[in-house]
Amino acid sequence: MALANGENIVDTITSTSILALYLFMNGRRVEGQYHTNAAVALVFSSQLHQMSPQVPIERVTGMTLFWQVFYLDRCWSSVIGRSPGFEEGDNPQKFITTPFPGDNRSNRSGSLVRQLIENPSLFPSNNIESLMIKSAIVFEQSAQFSNATSGSTNPPEWNRYFKLQAAVEHLLPTVPPLGNMSNTDLRIPVIYTLLHTATIYIYHPFVANDRNLQLLSLDAARSILGVIRAIRSSRYQFLDPILTFCWKVTAEVFIREKILAVGSSVPDQEVIVQGLQDELHVVVTALRKLSLIFPIADAILRQIEGQIESSAS
């Protein structure tokens, strides 16, 4: 009835998106995507994606809700291999113009998502909420670029490659330091992880043929490793389940590097292999802790353990 007469639309969108997240974290991806799409459809019909910053205070709730649904859609659509529900295309009615959290300037013309990738310096990141949204955008766009480029016979979209790379490089220095993880806002490690995972995605299609990009990919994985090491075990229950997939990507980098090191004849080979094994162990241990909280992490853990077993044979 609420959907039919438009009453309690905020409550309906909120409950639908919470249900979608619950389904995703329990490994029920198709159902999660269905409910995410339902939340997105309600957002579009309510025009929460095109709100002015000069709105009554009660509408601020709608702006906050929009970005929560947007974050859910962008992050999870990319990791399950589906197109995001907030696919703007060339339809101005679907352009996202609702200001980023904390941005009180008048609406910009055109899509904020496209403008962020084109020129991230236009959007100062002055709060954690804004950084979460921007990191999710870059994360999803980088995953999309990686999937479209890997295995394609067409030349890479180098313009897009450089813009994504520049977006990551612009955002990373604006993220607050991790600090003391006993009281750090747990969105901060998520932001770092999304951006470093985006870097791995950007370089992934080229690492087999470019040693420099291979090493940059490894650097990004090690940066994620640093974030993992900073998170206390007692705080795992409060983590964002999207980290499961980022840690999977991280583990796969260390598996790749270990395979390459085993097959090489470089000096100190055994030391290098053992070091990579130790780094991989940290990621696997983190996934194992997360699997006690999120069922989806258990499924991902088993995938990684299978890859490790196959690489050892």
Automatic annotation (TrEMBL):
The keyword Transcription applies. GO terms for molecular function: DNA binding; DNA-binding transcription factor activity, RNA polymerase II-specific; zinc ion binding. It holds the Pfam family Fungal_trans. It is found in: Nucleus. PANTHER family: ZN(2)-C6 FUNGAL-TYPE DOMAIN-CONTAINING PROTEIN, ZN(II)2CYS6 TRANSCRIPTION FACTOR (EUROFUNG)-RELATED. The keyword Transcription applies. GO terms for biological process: DNA-templated transcription. Residues 10-105 form the Xylanolytic transcriptional activator regulatory domain. It comes from the Eukaryota. GO terms for cellular component: nucleus. Keywords: Metal-binding, Nucleus, Transcription, Transcription regulation. This is Xylanolytic transcriptional activator regulatory domain-containing protein. It comes from Sistotremastrum niveocremeum HHB9708.
